[in-house]
Design a protein that fits this description.
This protein folds into two domains: 6-31 and 284-450, MOFRL domain (glycerate kinase, domain 1, 3-Layer(aba) Sandwich); 34-154 and 189-230 and 267-282, 3-Layer(aba) Sandwich (Rossmann fold). Helix content is 39%, strand content 20%. The chain is built from 18 helices and 15 strands. A hairpin with a 2-residue loop joins strand 2 (48-51) and strand 3. Helix 8 (178-186) crosses helix 11, helix 11 (232-241) packs across helix 12 (250-261) and helix 14 packs parallel to helix 15. It is globular, with a radius of gyration of 22 Å.
C-alpha cells in the first residue's frame, strides 16, 4: 500500500469515487517504481554486464563507480548495489531528507530540497572527487534525477551558497517553469550543464534517469552528465522576465553578465569523443499510461487528456473542472462513467506572505470550487515523488461534498487558496494524501473520476 492514510481519505465524501481514484493512483505509482525499472534493463549475464542494448565485458572494465543525486535516485542506487554488489569500487548519492537508506558500497547523504543547504554542497564536492578518480576503462553509473539542482549545489567561484539559496527561492516563487529555473542554476554551477561529465572523462558514463520535465529534455533531467542546450542569454532573460534581475546579488549579475561576453564560461554543448549513454527509465507518459490502463481494468472509459499541462495550478484545476462538469451534464467530449488522466507540471506564483501548500494541493482545491454538490465527480492530484512543494503531503483529493464539509468546519477554501495556504485546509478536511516513499519522480499525476448518478 503506497497511500498511507487511505482509510482516512475513504471515511467521508464520495467514497466510491475516492476509492477508484486512489486505486488508480497506487497502481500507476507502482508501475513506475525506479528500483524495478533498473532491474528490468540492468543485469549480469556470465561475465557481461547488460544495460539495455549495451553489453560490457566485465573482464575489460576497470573500476565501477556510482554517483547520483535527486528525489528518485535512492531506489536506483539500491538496485545498482543489488546487481553489482562488490564490483562497485566507490559511490555516493545525495537524496532528499527523509529518503535515506543504508547501503553497503554506496555512501548516502541527505540534503535539503527545494532550497539547497550545506549538506548538499559537501555532498557535491565528494561527487566531484569520485568523478576525478575515474579513469579510462572505468565505468561510471550516473543516477541524476529530478531535484538534483537543489540537492547538489556547487557554485562556481565567486558565487556563494547563500547566493544560490536566494536565487532558487526567488525563482520558485515567481511562477517560472523548470527550464527557466535551471537555465539560471546551470550557469551559476561548477558541475551542472554537463560539467560533471567533463570531470568523469575519460571513463565511460551510463546515465540512468527518471524524467520530471515535460518532453523529457535530457539536459533538464540529468543535466550534470549531458550536453547543455541553455545559454547565459537564457539565464539572464529568465531573471529579467520575472522581475528578479535587481533582486539577485551583485555577484550573480556579474557572473551572468561576464558569461554573455566570455565564451569560455559557457556550459559544454558537445561531448564528441566522450562515451556517454543515457537511459530514461521512466517518465510522465509511463505513469499516465499506467493510470489509464488501471482505469480500463476497473471498467471505465479512460483517456489521457495531456501529459504536458502547465500553468497556474488553481487555474488549471478550474479549467479541468469545467471539462468534468460538461461530461457529467452533457456527456461530452466523453460519456460517463469515465476517468480523465493528465500529467505535466503546473506552477504556483507567490507574492508576499504566504501559507503552506503545493501545486497539486492548489489544483485540487481550485477544482473543488467548481464541482460543489456534484454527486458524480471526484478528483485527486499528487506529486509522484510523494512530496508536493515544500511539504510532506503528496497531494489532495476532493469531490462534490468538499465545499459543504469545509463550510461546516468554518473553513474558507477560496480565501486560503488565494493566500497559498492550502495544506492546513486539506489536513483539516482529512483530504491530504500521504504516501510511503514512492521510488519515482515523474512530475504530477491527476485523476478525475466521473460516474453516473
Amino acid at each position: 500500500m503506497i497511500i498511507k492514510n487511505k482509510d482516512e481519505l475513504l471515511s467521508h465524501g464520495n467514497i466510491k469515487g475516492r476509492k477508484i481514484a486512489l486505486d488508480i493512483l497506487e497502481h500507476a505509482l507502482e508501475a513506475v517504481n525506479s528500483y524495478k525499472a533498473v532491474k528490468k534493463i540492468v543485469h549480469i549475464n556470465d561475465e557481461n554486464l547488460i544495460v539495455g542494448h549495451l553489453k560490457f565485458d566485465l573482464s575489460k572494465i576497470g573500476d565501477i563507480y556510482v554517483v547520483g543525486t535527486g528525489k528518485a535516485t535512492m531506489p536506483i542506487g539500491m538496485a545498482l548495489e543489488d546487481i553489482l554488489a562488490e564490483r562497485i569500487r566507490d559511490g555516493l548519492i545525495i537524496v532528499k531528507r527523509g529518503q535515506k537508506r543504508k547501503l553497503k558500497r554506496i555512501k548516502v547523504i541527505e540534503a535539503s530540497h527545494p532550497i539547497p543547504d550545506e549538506a548538499g554542497l559537501e555532498g557535491a564536492k565528494e561527487i566531484v572527487k569520485i568523478a576525478k578518480n575515474a579513469k579510462e576503462n572505468d565505468l561510471v553509473f550516473s543516477a541524476i534525477t529530478g531535484g538534483s539542482s537543489a540537492l547538489a549545489p556547487l557554485p562556481v567561484d565567486g558565487i556563494s551558497l547563500e547566493d544560490k539559496v536566494v536565487v532558487t527561492d526567488l525563482l520558485l516563487k515567481s511562477g517560472a517553469v523548470i527550464q527557466e529555473i535551471n537555465a539560471v542554476r546551470k550557469h551559476l554551477s561548477a558541475i551542472k550543464g554537463g560539467k560533471l561529465a567533463k570531470y568523469i572523462h575519460p571513463a565511460e558514463i551510463v546515465n540512468l534517469t527518471v524524467s520530471d520535465v515535460i518532453g523529457d529534455p535530457l539536459d533538464y533531467i540529468t543535466d550534470l552528465t549531458v550536453p547543455d542546450t541553455s545559454t547565459f542569454e537564457d539565464a539572464v532573460f529568465a531573471l529579467k522576465k520575472y522581475g528578479l534581475w535587481e533582486k539577485v546579488s551583485n555577484s550573480v549579475r556579474t557572473r551572468l553578465e561576464k558569461g554573455l561576453t566570455d565564451p569560455s564560461l559557457e556550459t559544454p554543448k558537445d561531448f564528441t569523443g566522450m562515451k556517454v549513454h543515457t537511459f530514461v527509465i521512466s517518465n510522465n507518459e509511463a505513469v499516465c499510461a499506467a493510470a489509464k490502463n488501471r482505469a480500463e481494468e476497473l471498467g471505465f472509459n479512460s483517456t489521457i487528456l495531456s501529459t504536458m499541462i502547465e500553468g497556474e495550478s488553481r487555474e488549471a484545476g478550474i479549467v479541468l473542472a469545467g471539462i468534468a462538469k460538461d461530461i457529467e451534464k452533457n456527456g461530452r467530449p466523453f460519456k460517463p462513467p469515465c476517468v480523465l488522466i493528465s500529467g505535466g507540471e503546473t506552477t504556483v506564483t507567490i507574492e508576499g506572505k504566504h501559507g503552506e501548500g503545493g501545486r497539486n494541493q492548489e489544483f485540487v482545491l481550485g477544482f473543488s470550487l467548481k464541482i460543489d454538490r456534484s454527486k458524480n465527480i471526484t478528483v485527486s492530484a499528487i506529486d509522484t515523488d510523494g512530496t508536493d512543494g515544500p511539504t510532506d503531503i503528496a497531494g489532495g483529493i476532493a469531490d462534490g461534498y468538499t465545499l459543504k464539509r469545509a463550510k461546516e468546519k468554518d473553513i474558507d477554501v477560496y480565501g486560503n487558496l488565494m493566500k497559498h495556504n492550502v495544506s492546513p485546509v486539506l489536513r483539516d478536511l482529512k483530504d491530504a494524501v500521504y504516501t510511503e516513499p514512492t521510488g519515482t519522480n515523474v512530475m504530477n499525476l491527476r485523476v478525475i473520476v466521473i460516474g453516473n448518478s
